[in-house]
Amino acid sequence: MAVRHRLIKSTVDDVWAILADGTRYGDWVVGTSESRPEDGVWPQVGSSIAYTVRLGRWSVAGSTVVRRCEAPGVLELEADSGWLGTARIALEVRPWGKDALVTIDEHPLRGPAGKLHNTAVDALIQLRHRSMLARLADTVEKAPGVVPQAV
To answer: Which of 7, 41, 92, 113 has minimal CB crowding within 10 Å?
Structure first.
C-alpha cells in the first residue's frame, strides 16, 4: 500500500471544498487534464466524475466513483483506468491545529494492476502522491476566499 500525508496550511473545510468539487480534480490529480460530472451529485456515494489523462500525444478517458463519503473528513474513491483495472483511493482530512492534515492511501484493486501489485508499483505511487498532495495544497491555498494560515 502507498500511504502519504501532507500538512496543508488551511482549514479542513477549505480542503474539503476542493475535494467536493468534481470539476477541480484536473487542478491537483497528477495526469488528469480535465474532469467533469458523470453520474449523480459529487461527492455523494455512487456519484462519479469522468476525466481525461494525457501523457504527451497519448490520452485515455477514465472515471472515478465515490465509494464512501463522510464530509468533511473521509472520501474513498474507486478510479477506473480501463484495461489496467481499478484502484482504491482513500483521502482523510483531519484538523491539525489550525491546519489540515491530508492522508492519501492508494492501491490497485481490480484487474491486471491489482494482480501485478508490488513494492516497485508502490514506489511509483508514492512519487505520484508527493506531487499530487503538493498540487492539492497549492490549489487549496490559492482558492478564492481562503485565508492563509499564519505560520
So the answer is: 41
Sequence-distant (≥ 6) Cβ neighbours of residue 19 within 8 angstroms? 43, 75, 91, 93
pLDDT, one tens digit per residue, over 12-21 is 999 999 999 9
* 3-state helix/strand/coil string of 25-87: HHHHCCCEEEEEEEECCCCCCCCEEEEEEEECCEEEEEEEEEEEEECCCEEEEEEECHHHCEE
Given a cut of 90, whether residue 81 has pLDDT beyond it is no
Distance CA 117, CA 111 (A): 10
Q: How would you class 133 by CB atoms within 10 Å of its CB: exposed for 0-12, middle for 13-18, buried for 19 or more?
A: buried
Beta bridge partners of 109: none
Decide if 93 contacts 101 (C-beta within 8 A).
yes
Q: Is the pLDDT of residue 150 over 60?
A: no
